[in-house]
Amino acid sequence: xxxxxxxxxxxxxxxxxxxxxxxxxxVDQLDVTKGTFYYYFNSKQEVLRDIHLEYxxxxxxxxxxxxxxxxxxxxxxxxxxxxxTLSKIDTxxxxxxxxxxxxxxxxxxxxKQIKLKRKEYRLNFEKIIDAGKKTKEFSNHIRTDILAFxxxxxxxxxxxxxxxxxxxxxxxxxxxxxxxxxxxxxxVPVKEGI
Amino acid sequence: xxxxxxxxxxxxxxxxxxxxxxxxxxVDQLDVTKGTFYYYFNSKQEVLRDIHLEYxxxxxxxxxxxxxxxxxxxxxxxxxxxxxTLSKIDTxxxxxxxxxxxxxxxxxxxxKQIKLKRKEYRLNFEKIIDAGKKTKEFSNHIRTDILAFxxxxxxxxxxxxxxxxxxxxxxxxxxxxxxxxxxxxxxVPVKEGI
Amino acid sequence: xxxxxxxxxxxxxxxxxxxxxxxxxxVDQLDVTKGTFYYYFNSKQEVLRDIHLEYxxxxxxxxxxxxxxxxxxxxxxxxxxxxxTLSKIDTxxxxxxxxxxxxxxxxxxxxKQIKLKRKEYRLNFEKIIDAGKKTKEFSNHIRTDILAFxxxxxxxxxxxxxxxxxxxxxxxxxxxxxxxxxxxxxxVPVKEGI
Amino acid sequence: xxxxxxxxxxxxxxxxxxxxxxxxxxVDQLDVTKGTFYYYFNSKQEVLRDIHLEYxxxxxxxxxxxxxxxxxxxxxxxxxxxxxTLSKIDTxxxxxxxxxxxxxxxxxxxxKQIKLKRKEYRLNFEKIIDAGKKTKEFSNHIRTDILAFxxxxxxxxxxxxxxxxxxxxxxxxxxxxxxxxxxxxxxVPVKEGI
DNA sequence: AATGAATGAGAATTCATTCAT
DNA sequence: AATGAATGAATTCTCATTCAT
Lengths: 194, 194, 194, 194
Known about the structure:
Low-confidence stretches of chain A: none
Oligomer: homotetramer
Strand content of chain A: under 5%
CATH class of the largest domain in chain A: Mainly Alpha
Structural class of chain A: mainly alpha
């Protein structure tokens, strides 16, 4: 039941927003009563906190695996990390949207906790960039932090428009984004002849 | 007075959120009564709509000027458009954050209207890219739409973290982002010899 | 309207208890809506606080007059103070009962505030006793504080049983209590003969 | 277990109030579940009734012994009865406070039952006074009922302030109160001369 | 004896909005 | 232009109680 409540809450928070979703909405769709909701959760907020934590912790855990993987080059790690973010948005789009929209409604303490974890995620990404700069896989001409923010914006923002509708997969999108970041879009004039 | 209400609303919507800001909050800070609010606006929503419209229409207008400017190359237009977005976030950060967070609270009709204008902004950006591809300023290896979304993500997301704190100006940030998009970050091995 | 709400609240708090009285109860009897209640009071608690404050402050003010009255002996002051307490219970019996029963439901801060004022009232009473001890109006054989507590118990407790039903007036009761306290009930054997 | 529940309930009712104490509170502190509570009691109310009954019946029983004791004068009986009330408050202060505060929450039937027993206790006290008046131990100048109420107020009210903190014992307090009631506090001018 | 899931009838409170003045 | 009283619908949360196991 706890899980059913969580799932239905995700659906509704995504659809109508956290504030706009009433507990009545949630329990009505599950054909239980408000009492049941409060048997499993102490407040509406607590549900939101669970959603946030599960999302960012899932990301961090998978990111850790990428970082630890010794067989990957930094370019590959970059790609994998981008893909990780996008695939998460693909498979857990609702949670992704909720997580990007509804931070304000958490208690301060939880906001802090979540923000710390997000920062960790960003710093891990910066590690990949820095490592790549050292191994000369990446050039030094862009500050690591700006790059990381740019990347996070690019990928995270896709929760706003990206739907796997057959036309474009998360894999392809990850490839495109990696390519943009790696090679840019400038047409390099072919140095011809002589 | 109407303007004072609008300004105070922007402050509060940014600080506490649209839903969380009560009309009482707004009028209390202006030392007037609710009646006054309703004399100038028909509803709380109307204030939000005004904020949204003013923001996107401001962007569109300035974007138009860039597009029309015959003296600029497409690379330069790209940079100008990126700078436009970022400088808007710099000078109208509060509005930017509101506009990115609070779309749901508008009436459907207004949502549609706003979304259309946003699409127009994106399509205008795509025009620059397509023109650049034609003039061989930009390479063809990335789909225009994805590129546009990536750019929008990069720049728009900066409302989330970017504050002009002396360390980094909007101009610099625009330059960095343009460079990432143009040249990528891949270290190109110097073709030696012959 | 604010006053009507206060009055009706007093009736109901006395009759059903603070916790048991709902705001719906209050407004229903006044034929207004809950919104009206909250227009005049910020919470149910605030009403209770007002009742408490008004009661004890009324007592303190009248007690002050007794204390300042130079024309009264200490015995007379004692009587007047006892009468004051009892007449208050007579004319404001409902408030008296509420005030004696419902302290717990106030916020800690207010509880402290009320308790301080109550203590002030008791200490003022002790002043009368001490003054009377000095002028030899009262004997020294009972500790002032215990006497004060005893008196307070006697009189305050009458909120529990005392109703002016024609049989016994507050004046008479005050006279009886003063007499008990002054002369006791011991039959003093008449010293006969030489 | 039944007894543990009762004890914990007394603690909590005294501390937080009857209404404010939830069954969850009670069972949480005993590390059992609500089912257990309902195995031993049919309702929360029933617990309160038990507390009330045990308290007043204890008083009545001990009072009976005082009344029956042929070796005591009425003055002594008066003292013993006062001491009984105060010692009960001393040893069962929590119950005393509960019993004085929470009568309203019992069913009407139980309220009646309790009130009858309280009246019995008061009438028994009046018997002592009347007997003393007959034997000329007490003077006739105060109505018996008022005296009884005054006494009950004095003693019962002490649940509100009296704590055995080493400074004052229940025995001493009983002696003081008996003395006040017997001898009053008026300084009797020494009959001088022959 | 004891559990734990579920109920359901409230309760206080919030707040955008209306409207006569 | 502006006020202030009043509305009323909605919302979160509480908790004693039930009951199958």
